[in-house]
Amino acid sequence: MGRRSYAKAAALCAAGVLAVSGCAGDGQEDGSDGSDGVSVVTGAYPLQWLAGQVGGDRVEVETLAEPGTDPHELELSPRQIGSVGSADVAFYIGGLQPAVDDAVSSQGGENALDVAELVELRTLEDNAGSDGGDHGHEEGGHESGHEDDHGGDEAADDGDGHSHDAGEPDPHMWLDTERFARAAEGLAERLGEADPDHAADYADNAEAVTGLLDGIDTEYSQGLAECESRDIVVSHSAFGYLAARYDLHQISPAGLDSHSEPSPGRLAEISETVRESDITTVFTEPLTDSGAAETIAGEAGVDTAVLDPVGGVTDASPGEDYPSIMRANLDTLGEALRCS
Ligand SMILES: [Zn+2]
Questions:
Q1: Does CATH number 3.40.50.1980 belong to domain 124-168+225-336?
Q2: What are 131-185's pLDDT values in tens digits?
Q3: Which of 105, 113, 135, 321: CA 20 to 30 A from 17?
Q4: How many angstroms separate the alpha carbon of residue 309 from the centre of ligand 1?
């Protein structure tokens, strides 16, 4: 396994595909040169965490994102692009990080494991559907429901010229514990193919992480069962999965990308919604510019609190890993939505 990866990296280097500096010591760093374990390269913190859980001691996990950086903004060095090709498994979420999508396709993609192939991703359209349909928000007082989703689209288009349509997949699937558990199973299967001697270990690990995720899911279902408000005003549309799963209503000034720039009109519209409703808190994020959320909170005269989309971990994160951040988010939601 390791030998094959090393050979592949060496061949790419010989062919001059990588910068010379990117090739020197490449195998050393990702542990794929002749050592026994399996190497996994991931693009974002949640997948790094999941791969660590499922892989255990036998799997070397390299993450492409610097700790504490916004996963949407990722750029890759030539060495990192090389490691996407040379790792035994490139574990990523198509659509989350264009740089990783590009690296996978430029490296041939034989080792690629796209989470979107393991679980069905929600789309902007699904998020729109859940606003009215699931929650009975149609019945007056929530006329902002449809405009929310338009606002998201417009904001996304305003950004850097990417066009976003309603069918665009929402990559933030790790905020759905059930989908995340299915991704763990899919990864365990792939690791078992790469390292058949330990396939049973990977399956056991996936089962353990599924149990952990089920536990968090139960805490959320119970913690958010009875709340005075179910509206969450967030910085960017990262919480569609969470909202759908626990019957919350996401209101966001920005689209699926954290760097999409909301229009002043959209901000004013949400501020008015907040002022006219029983919303007490607007949520900010630790890793991205939450200026829009702070503007809304200021205009509406309500508090802000950190609701972390778990894109990465820093000192500013409300926990030190996926489970603790998810639990901190639940406490924050419970307080802001006045759940009993
Ligand atoms: Zn995001």
A1: yes
A2: 433 333 333 333 333 334 433 333 333 333 344 567 889 999 999 999 999 999 9
A3: 113
A4: 7
